[in-house]
Predict the structure.
Amino acid sequence: MNVKQQLENMIAEAKEQVLIVKSIHELNEFKSKYLGKKGSFSEIAKMMKDLPNDEKPVFGKLTNEAKQAINEYINNQRVIIEEAIINEKLMKETIDVTLPGKEFGIGQTHLLTQIKEEIEDLFIGMGYQVMEGPEVEIDEYNFEKLNLPKDHPARDMQDTFYITDETLLRTHTSPVQVRTMLDNSEKGPIKIICPGKVYRRDDDDATHSHQFMQIEGLVVDEKTSMADLKGTLLEVAKKMFGSNRDIRLRPSYFPFTEPSVEVDVSCANCNGKGCNICKHTGWIEILGAGMVNDKVLEASGYDSKKYQGFAFGMGVERIAMLKYGINDIRMFYLNDLRFNKQFTNE
Ligand code: DAH
C-alpha cells in the first residue's frame, strides 16, 4: 500500500471514528492518538527519511493535508460535544415559569402599632415631639417625682413589678414626663407624647393584662390651660372615633395632676343615646388627664410660678378595643393570625 493510500485510509477512518466520540476527554485522547507525539503521524513521518528526495515534497504535502483534515474533524466534533453538554444542562435546569410562585407571608403592622402610629401622626401634626423612655425605670421617676410618695396606695407591691427596691418595670409612661423635664436644661417649654409598653402586677383576664401600651402627653409652657387640654383631647377623640364625636371631662384624682379629670368620648355606637357598649350612659371613658401638679414641675426643676402644663395618659389597647369592638385584651398578645390579619392598614 503506498503512502497516499495509507493516508487516505487514515483520514476515512478518523472521519468515521470521530463521530463516536462523546466527551471532550475522549476527544483529547482521540486527538493524541492521531496527532500526538506518539500518534499515527509520527509513525508516518519516520517513513519520510527513507524516501527518495524528489518524493519528499509530495509526501510532506499529503501528510499536512491529512493532518488538517483530521484536525478539522476533531474541531467539528468538539463543537458538537460542547453543544450537547450545554443542551443537557439546559434540559436539567429548565425552569417552568408557569408554576405558581412560593407565597411569602409578608407581615403587616399589628393593630396596636397602627393605633400608636395614627396618634403619633396626629400629635406630630400639632407640633409635638415623640419621646421614649426605658421600660426598666427607677422608683424616683416612676413614683417619687410624680408626687407618689413611698406610702401611696398606688405603689402597693400588688401593682408593681419591682426588680430591686429602687428599680421596677414602669407601671405607666408618666416617668417620661419627669425624664423630659429633667433633661431640658433651659427649663423651657415642652410639647411631647411618649408611647410605650407598661407593666402591672395584674392577673390576666378579658380586661387586664400584665403588659399593655400607653401614650402619655405633656405640654409645659408659660400659658397653658384646661381649655388647651380639652381642645387637644377633642382632636384625639375625633381622629380615633370619628368627626362627630364629642368629649366631656369629669373630675378625678391623680397625684401628678391638679385638677385631674377623666375624659369620656360620646359613644360612637349609639351616638350618645345610650346602649350596651356605653352602659346606657352615652359616654365611654378613654383617658386620664389634668393640669400638671406644681409639685411635679418643681420636682424636675421647673418654676411653677412661671410655667404650667397639662398632661394626659391613654391606654392603647382600650382605644383599639372600643374602636373595633374587641372584648378581650388578650387577643392583642396571642398572635393569632386570624385575629391580626383582620386589621390591615393598607
Ligand atoms: N399615668 C396614669 C395611669 O397610668 C394615666 C394618666 C393620668 C397620665 C393623668 C397622665 C395624667 O399624664 O395627667 O393610670
